[in-house]
Design brief:
- Helix 1 crosses helix 5, helix 5 packs parallel to helix 6 and helix 6 packs parallel to helix 7.
- The chain has seven helices and 13 strands.
- Strand 10, helix 6 and strand 11 form a beta-alpha-beta unit.
- It has a domain of 127 residues: Cytidine Deaminase, domain 2 (3-Layer(aba) Sandwich), CATH 3.40.140.
- By secondary structure, it is of the alpha/beta class.
- It has a six-stranded mixed beta sheet with strand order 9-8-10-11-12-13, sandwiched between helices. A five-stranded mixed beta sheet has the order 5-6-3-4-7, covered by helices on one side.
């Protein structure tokens, strides 16, 4: 299924009213089946759905790593993601009730916006990875040049997981949390571990986005916008370096600033 669709609209521009065609982003409900049983439904943009399934299931602890996936198959034009894998049955059971991950928040560890940091089942981040403010500025500038669906529709969130100049993966989706799972899923498919990367996102650093990064063990999460108080508190507890309001050479480092070092 194509991610983009034409839609006829009425436009007002320079005092004139006229009919024209606009390009809109598709939003579908895709069902993830695990070992023949429906586990969860989510609203998503129909691109990189295999990567989305990998990133989501690993971040939720349902599947431990890429080697535990036996098969991922898209059916009915992406409306079904059929997964065969070795799973953590206890965590899979939590998703057994009928649920839809909407484009904002939904049913998952990372989407429970009322959760306190003490209730999150995750390990503290131990990565010693560091980055300079100058490099953050450079990479954020490059990141914002590579958002094709946003450029065409203005209606998606974007994320980039960055390892080095030759290894980085972009993702776009109507749901912020899906972009992190898609980007991480792409990296995992290539044999790369998110704990060795930085993550850049286009939207706010809500607690949901922070927990997604923590579940993937990403040490540094960066955005052009701000964090919420709960997002910052959660990042502090789990040793995640949180950087927001990256505008040119300016930025706010909310937590664990020791990972941000100036170039010599």
């Amino acid at each position: 299924m194509e991610a983009l669709a034409e839609f006829q609209i009425t436009k007002i521009k320079n005092g004139k009213i006229f009919k024209t065609k606009d390009i809109l982003i598709r939003e579908i409900k895709t069902d993830i089946y695990i070992n023949g049983k429906k586990a969860v439904s989510m609203m998503a943009t129909p691109v990189d759905l295999e990567a989305l399934a990998i990133g989501y299931l690993i971040s939720e602890g349902i599947v431990e790593n890429l080697n535990d996936f036996e098969k991922i198959e898209l059916k009915e034009d992406g409306l079904i993601i059929d997964v065969k894998a070795k799973t953590n049955e206890k965590k899979l059971k939590k998703l057994s009730e009928e649920a839809i991950l909407v484009s904002g928040c939904g049913k998952s560890v990372s989407a429970n916006i009322s959760i306190s940091p003490e209730e999150i089942e995750a390990e503290k981040i131990t990565s010693k990875k560091k980055i300079s403010p100058e490099e953050i500025t450079r990479q954020m500038n490059e990141f914002y040049k590579s958002c094709p669906l946003y450029e065409k529709t203005g209606c998606v969130h974007t994320a980039r997981i960055f390892f080095d100049e030759k290894n980085y993966f972009d993702a776009e989706d109507i749901a912020q949390h899906n972009t992190i799972d898609k980007a991480c899923g792409k990296a995992i498919q290539k044999g790369l571990d998110p704990k060795n990367a930085i993550m850049m996102v286009s939207g706010r650093l809500s607690s949901e986005m922070v927990v997604k990064a923590i579940m993937h063990k990403i040490p540094i999460l960066i955005s052009r916008t701000a964090t919420t108080c709960l997002g910052a508190k959660t990042a502090e507890v789990f040793n995640l370096t949180l950087v927001g309001f990256v505008r040119g050479e300016n930025m706010n480092i909310y937590t664990h600033p020791w990972r941000i070092v100036f170039e010599d």
